[in-house]
Specification:
About 25% of the residues lie in helices and about 40% in strands. It has a six-stranded mixed sheet with strand order 5-6-2-1-8-9. It has a four-stranded antiparallel sheet with strand order 4-3-7-10. Strand 1 and strand 2 form a beta hairpin. The relative contact order is 0.19. It has one domain. It is of the alpha+beta class. It starts with a helix and ends with a strand.
């Protein structure tokens, strides 16, 4: 009889221990990094966006109501479509006041990050870059976007924080 009464003490302790044993989130913040490099020789913008894999998968799952696995090679074509659609809806660039048509080149996963690659052709010079970036804003209201723009080897950077979506960098 005494052993049966101990189970009511042990069970709550077991739940506390198991709850504490769960892994902590991989990262306590939500950030993306967008880098825009003006390639004067090719007259284009070379753009890369870096986001955490788990955050991006969660966002894509929420938006497209489908299972997402950016590491799985067998579904790469399907994932490419989701990534392309999402990024082109949530990132835009103006060069000297004119909208830049962004071409999606692809994505790759490296460790805990996803790199998305885009190109903006037909940009012979860049004096002012206006970036609209709300990547992952639909998932995280503490999202931060770090933006780097490189022109003629000169790098300028800025940061936007949810709900801010626009950044202007002048050279």
């Amino acid at each position: 009889m005494a052993a049966a009464s101990y189970k009511w003490l042990v069970l709550p302790l077991l739940f506390i221990v198991l709850g504490a044993a769960r892994p902590l989130p991989v990262h306590p913040f939500h950030v993306s990094v967008t880098e825009i490099n003006h390639n004067a020789a090719d007259k284009n913008l070379e753009i890369s966006c870096k986001v955490f894999v788990d955050d991006f998968e969660k966002t894509l799952e929420q938006n497209y109501k489908t299972a997402v696995d950016l590491n799985k090679e067998s579904v790469k074509t399907a994932m490419d479509k989701l990534v392309k659609d999402y990024v082109l809806k949530h990132l835009s660039v103006k060069a000297d006041g004119k909208n830049v048509v962004l071409d999606y080149l692809g994505f790759e996963v490296e460790s805990e990050a996803v790199y998305v690659y885009l190109e903006g052709p037909g940009i012979s010079a860049l004096g002012t870059a206006e970036i609209t970036d709300n990547l992952l804003y639909d998932q995280f209201n503490d999202q931060i976007g770090i933006i780097h723009v490189i022109v003629n080897g000169v790098r300028k950077s800025t940061k936007i924080s949810y709900p801010e979506t626009k950044a202007v960098i002048r050279f």
